[in-house]
Amino acid sequence: MIIMADTTTLDADPMPELNPALARARIADAFRDHGRVHIPSVLTEASAERIHHCLTQETKWSLTFNKGGDFCDLDNVSQEERSKLVFAAWQRAPNGFQYFFDNHRLSRDGEAYRDESHYFAKLVAFLNSQPVLSLMREVTGLSAIEWADAQATVYRPGDFLMVHNDEIGGHKRLAAYVLNFTRAWRADWGGILQFYGEDRHIEEGYVPAFNALNVFRVPALHSVSQVALYGGLRYSITGWFHAR
Amino acid sequence: MEGASQTAVTDVLPELNPALDRDALAKGFGRAQRIHITNVLTNVSAERVYRALASEMGWTTTHNTGGKRVDLRNLAQDERAKISLAAWAWARGNFAYLYDNHRLSHDGEPYADQSHYIAKFVTFLNSPAFIGFMREVTGLQGIDYADAQATLYRPGDFLTEHDDTAGDKNRLAAYVFSFTPKWFADWGGLLEFVSDRAHIGAGYVPEFNSLNVFTVPQVHLVSQVTLFGGLRYSVTGWLRSF
User: Fold this and answer.
1) I need a surface site. Which of A54, A154, B36, B197 has the fewest CB within 10 A?
2) What is the ipTM of this complex?
3) Which of B186, B199, B224 shows the shortest C-beta gap to A205?
């Protein structure tokens, strides 16, 4: 990875900022050809470091999972309770769509983050700022993009999101995004954002990375493969870009 | 898959599906240096091989926790669970594997027990029909023979990233026949290829009666079978020159 900036010590609270050196035309070409793209070094190194710090040190996580059509969010789950719940989720998994990971809601409908003093407020404002929205329009060719929702997620060993295509009635989702903030990952640790071909095999998979952005057109069959039981913690900020 | 009754297929010989489009397969292989071939055998012979793996095979658990290969027979379930925990800890930072296997042919020789159905499959792998097919698809005219092992990945089993390089073995290509009747991509156990950019360039779901072939070296892995997954049966090895 290319180091874009110096240490964070000089600049303890940098604003989230796009890497000014992105090869936008090349990125747009890739998106046009494949309906998806992986953009390394998407932010300045200093702002990526700051968000990483936020995710690893300053975030209160909730457990999120589904039981069929029931969507459950639980706060303050002990490790023992989480183990029980993940076993139950694994048991339900053969019977239908299932997900299980930790999250923290940042913005449901593009609104500002509830705690203005938290660094997340800057991040949510940034995701809905003109620099980001216009980059997304430029890269995807989807000129109707107007706003982004967002959640922070951490997938722990055993966590997963089964194959689905993001089509949900009532939302004008145009493209999905995943901002990666995971260091030193290995492909065999799982947690891979996997895209399915027409033959139902994996056409391509993005391995978790640090300071990289995945964007893909909706709908697209995809999943996050289970983080291996020998894997690490997979941090990201994820959501959709919407039309008004 | 629900075709002929068991009695009718009992000892059918392993046979390639005569309808394979060999030109198209060779072109596909030429592009990517790997290929996933569906319906590679006649359905009855694939069914028969599956039965040999699922019902007629003794398995040995193999792992390399600590860095050295260990083979263990007749493990009780709680012993295997302990071994799994240790293997997962080792896998976090090392090349590692854990699965069950059964050696079929070290160097292309016939299977030891000629009365076992799997002996017919080993003979098939080293027959002119299969070796010729592999030369045709890969373009590697130097392929002379195949070694083979049967493998069974259970929930939690895995094989981390590696590239199959082994100096003295003249491996030209690797192959994996999949014989699991029903599998979902979400169950893991995928044969995944790591691209130059450290992402996944392709992942093959272990679908019944399919064959994956790829050149060596190529970084690949078998993703961990999820604890809600099934039993992943295959016959795998390398296509080698003398």
Assistant:
1) B197
2) 0.91
3) B199
Q: Considering CB atoms only, which of B192, B224, B228 is closest to A202?
A: B192
Parent domain of B100: 31-240
Domain boundaries, chain A: 24-243
Local structure of residue A18 (DSSP, 8 states): B
In a domain, B128, yes or no: yes
Contact status, residue A196 vs residue A237, Cβ threshold 8 Å:
no
Q: Cβ B202–A196 below 8 Å, yes or no?
A: no
Residue A21 and residue A31: Cα distance in Å, rounded?
18
Chains A, B: CB contacts within 8 A come to 103
Torsion angle, alpha carbons of A189, A220, A88, B85, to 10: -10
What is the per-residue pLDDT across B51-61, written as a single tens digit (0 to 9) for each?
999 999 999 99
Residue A191 identity (one-letter amino acid): G
Facing residue for B158 by CB, picked from A188, A205, A223:
A188
At residue B90, what is the residue type? W
Find the length of chain A.
Answer: 244
CATH of domain A24-243: 3.60.130.20
Which residue on chain A is closest to B37 by alpha carbon?
A: A199
The candidate with the shortest Cα–Cα distance to B235, out of B155, B146, B128, B107, is B146
Whole-model pTM? 0.92
